[in-house]
Amino acid sequence: MAKAGSAERGADAAPGARRRKQHARRQEVLDTAARMFFERGYEATTTQDIGAALGLLKGSVYYYISSKQDLLFELVQQYHDDTREHFEPILASDAPPVDKLRELIMVDTAHTARNLERSTLFYTEWRSLPQERRSVIVAERARHESAVQEWIVAAQAAGAIRPEVDAKIASFAIFGMVNSVYRWFTPDGRKSAEEIGRDFSDLVLGGLLTAAD
């Protein structure tokens, strides 16, 4: 009976083990695709290239993905999900608006720099997606920009940020600076991702805050 019970438990565990293996293999496909899109560009990379890098036949790649476009969309979504993980706690916090702004600039900059493959892919290849999928990305970006604009306006009302600052233009400038880090950051450079995040935060707030702050 003990042997029968062990066999049953083994049979129950087998599907779970297979699912974990499939999930790990699928993530390997995603990671390989991200690296190849980063190195070659999305348009220049084929599913056959991705399969060859993994030792898979072209047909076998489609066991893990439905199309190259779906693969790109999932990679872009994964990067957005990672960004959301640090954005949502800042958004929900009771910290003063200036502190929220400082934290977002530091964390966003460091995240972009630490994840060069994914951030480069996100900022350079998302336009390769069809309109209905690009709209998902645009909507999420607009949400971030709106939050920053609200923080700036609230800080102006509290006397912390200069009243003549245009909140919309300031938010565009902030994200333009933060989102460009992937173009020039090198992991073995003079400053770390976190140090650059602090520098960016000091630079932005130095131009926004009133003299008293």
UniProtKB/TrEMBL annotation:
DNA-binding region: 46-65
Domain of life of the source: Bacteria
Alphabetized Pfam families for the sequence: TetR_C_24 (PF17932), TetR_N (PF00440)
PANTHER family noted in UniProt: HTH-TYPE TRANSCRIPTIONAL REGULATOR RUTR, HTH-TYPE TRANSCRIPTIONAL REPRESSOR KSTR2
Molecular function via GO: DNA-binding transcription factor activity; transcription cis-regulatory region binding
Domain HTH tetR-type, chain residue ranges per copy: 23-83
Region annotated Disordered, chain positions: 1-26
Source organism phylogeny: Bacteria, Bacillati, Actinomycetota, Actinomycetes, Pseudonocardiales
Organism encoding this protein: Pseudonocardia broussonetiae
Residue ranges crossing the lipid bilayer per the database entry: none
Record key words, sorted: DNA-binding, Repressor, Transcription, Transcription regulation
Keyword set includes Ribosomal protein: no
Record protein name field: TetR/AcrR family transcriptional regulator
Record's keyword annotation contains Transmembrane: no
